[in-house]
Amino acid sequence: MRAQLDVLKQRLADVHNLNRAMAVLSWDQHTYMPPGGAFARAAQTATLSRLAHDIFIAPETGELLHEAVQEIPEFQPDGDDADLLRVAKRDYDRAIKVPTSLVTAINEHSVLALPVWVRARQENDFASFAPYLEKTVKLSRELAEHLGYEEHIYDPLLDEAEPGMKTSQMVSLFDTLRRELVPLARAISERLDRVDDAALHQPFDEAKQEAFGRMVVERFGYDFLRGRQDRTVHPFETTFSRNDVRITTRFDPAWLSPALFGTMHEAGHGLYEQGIAPSLEGTLLARGASLGLHESQSRLWENVVGRSRPFWEHFYPRLQETFPQQLSGVALDEFYLAVNRVEPSFIRVEADEVTYNLHALLRFEVELDLLRDRYSVADAPEVWKQKMEEYLGIRPPSDSLGILQDMHWSGGVFGYFPTYTLGNVLSVQFFEAAVREFPEIPDRIGQGDFGALRSWLTDRIYRHGRKYEPNELIEMATGEPIQSRSYIGYLKTKYGAIYGLS
Ligand code: ZN
Predict the structure, then answer these.
(1) 237 alpha carbon to ligand 1 midpoint, in Å?
(2) pLDDT tens for each residue of 238-269
(3) Would you tell me how many other CB atoms lie within 10 Å of the CB of residue 194?
(4) Which label site among 106, 238, 246, 398 has the fewest CB atoms less than 10 Å from its CB?
(5) How far is CA 220 from CA 214, 278, 392, in A?
(6) Mean pLDDT throughout 485-500?
(7) How do residues 97-145 score in pLDDT, each as one tens digit?
(8) Strand pairing partners for 248?
């Protein structure tokens, strides 16, 4: 008898379907909805969101979870059903710890704070945003207290993005990165003129950019019969089903990089979602294991593959054929250097592979300090500037180029930024594990063949969806816990060669 399990699964499927319907509405909002639709769309989304939340946190869900566990045979502790129950119980226990009034307060705060942040950044007016950042800190603390923690107040916030990861793990990871990457970025800063990326800044026909990007990600294995690509101001990936995974791209007619590498990045997220096992379709296991795991895949395809020498050995002649006027006089070596140019800059989203994590580190430290009241929100802009000088050797001339640059702190609570760095670190740990098993992978990439790499990733990561927590999945896939050795080695070798450091 599995009567209760079936009732529960139907109930969870309803929640899942409501969430995925919300994703469709959100995708439409960012791609095709006319401005006039905004008000009605907000109301529609609020209704679906309330329904999904109410069904999920209802006491019946808790009772069904309790009863359904008894129906799983003891000899089957790790089947899809057992995994579904374990993850659903975890989500449920977490959700019921947070009072509905706090959920509402966080949502309302993000709605009110966003336009204030937009204006504050435009006008370089931190003072007007400061009360909202104070509220973000206050709500983050409240959320953490409700969720509970043993070691660190940041743990339950990080746990939302990275189930099972601990702040102490992040602190030690970032300590190593700071120690190794600050001197590397400094050494490169003294040799910036070794790499020129003028070749990337020329007029590039948008339709040709689109066709080339599409050809590349189709070769990666992104399936356009189960996906599509549209245009948005801020690129993203969104999933309605493993058979309908959408990506979006932004084109710059005078700069090749944003669309080219942005398409590879979002397709990396898309490959993960398209690779989830069909048996998990329609359940809450049917998505990536965490934000950091997801980012590891976008970074792997964008940087470890898409900015590698073997990749361009294969694709550069094709790119030259696409843009003969712009690139026929640019040698492969020169182009490879151009796409890997490093330069300390103020803006995180424009940062290169070497400096990116120093941006994430800075935000992580500021979040920890504000949560623990080490200094006031009013002092945070100056702390930001000092840290930029310490880590990157540059001082932002304004708060718009400093603490006001990211929308995240207006959008709710803390805990998100470390996932970017987790993604970077894991991208290399996964790639190296795949190459250990299939040493031919780099040569295959040099022939434009990504089959071996993609099947390793699908087998070890993608197909499992959310069945395992990040720490478990990383160990299962690579045979060791998360480590930064591979990532730091990769950066030192690659950029040591590019910038002639010994
Ligand atoms: Zn991403």
Answers:
(1) 8
(2) 999 999 999 999 999 999 999 999 999 999 99
(3) 13
(4) 398
(5) 10, 20, 34
(6) 97
(7) 999 899 889 988 988 898 899 999 999 999 999 999 999 999 999 999 9
(8) 230
CA distance 183 to 210: 38
- Ligand 1 centroid to 76 CA: how many Å? 36
| Residues whose beta carbons lie less than 5 angstroms from ion ligand 1 | 298
Helix or strand (DSSP H, E) at 413: none
Q: How far is the CA of 349 from the centre of ligand 1 (A)?
A: 11
**For the chain, what percent of residues have pLDDT higher than 70?**
99
364-390 pLDDT, tens digit per residue, is 999 999 999 999 999 999 999 999 999
**How remote is the CA of residue 281 from the centroid of ligand 1, in Å?**
22
Helix extents (H) in 32-125: 38-57, 59-71, 80-97, 100-123
Residue 71 is among the residues annotated as catalytic for this protein:
no
Q: Tell me the C-alpha distance between 91 and 287, whole Å.
A: 14
Annotated active-site residue in 162, 237, 266, 295: 266
Report which residue type is found at 420: Y
**Domains recognised in the chain with CATH numbers:** 3-152 (no CATH), 167-499 (1.10.1370.30)
Q: How many residues does the chain have?
A: 502
427 alpha carbon to ligand 1 midpoint, in Å?
A: 12
